[in-house]
Design a protein that fits this description.
By secondary structure, the chain is α/β, with parallel strands linked by helices. The chain has helices spanning 13-24, 88-99, and strands at residues 5-9, 27-33, 51-58, 61-67, 81-84, 103-109, 114-121, 127-133. The longest helix is centred in the first third of the chain and has 12 residues, at 13-24. The mean pLDDT is 93.
């Protein structure tokens, strides 16, 4: 059994996945547009370049995504992708990238469990928790 996260976008799935690939070290392994699917002539012309299905390896897991009609799209509300990083500097770098044009729910700060922790929604509508944990004491 495997569990994957599948994200819907309102027309900017390709842009989001390329952004995550460039800045978070992900690797896009598949990107199929509606116009490339079997029976594509049945797809509306304005929907031909919309992403039907995308896959990305990111942070040791597989992230899936697709475009949906913009009038049906809603940003993630009650779920977050939680990204644990190796350093405070990496947490700050990623926070700066993902928060640009997005919405910050909790600014980057120190907590009892992390030297860096933040919660935000990026400009693509994906909600993130960023974390650089404190070392565990025995």
């Amino acid at each position: 059994m495997q569990l994957h996260t599948y994200l819907n976008y309102g027309g900017n799935c390709e842009e989001a996945f390329k952004f995550y690939e460039k800045h978070l070290g992900g690797i896009i392994t598949m990107m199929m547009r509606h116009g490339e699917q079997p029976g594509a002539p049945n797809a509306p012309a304005d929907w031909a370049n919309a992403v039907l299905h995308a896959r990305m390896n990111l942070g040791g897991t597989e992230l899936l995504g697709a475009d949906i009609p913009p009038d049906r799209f809603q940003p993630i509300r009650s779920a977050y992708l939680s990204l644990t990083v190796e350093s405070d500097q990496e947490a700050d770098r990623i926070f700066d990238l993902l928060s640009e044009g997005g919405q910050i729910f909790m600014p980057m700060q120190e907590t009892f469990f992390a030297s860096r922790f933040a919660m935000l929604r990026d400009r693509f509508g994906t909600s993130w928790m960023l974390l650089h944990p404190r070392p565990q004491r025995a």
